[in-house]
Specification:
Length: 84
Amino acid sequence: MPYGNYAECPHCGKMARGDDEIEELFGYRYGHTKPQSWCKECRNNARYSGESLSVWDAADIWMSNGMDEDYMFGYTEDELRNAL
């Protein structure tokens, strides 16, 4: 979770401190105002691992996380909305 100038990946626990380290490990969203929730490595692994969630499970997780773009698991917003 992002805390000030810190970010921690909820998947692997990798911690970044300071804007440069956060940019390198996490990247930003929302017009470069907030760090991504997952680190780049975990996002890429989830996207390309071949072990993906069903669209229905992904939609439930996405919805329970406030429709956050970090919890889309490679699906489009339309696909997730239709699965709800």
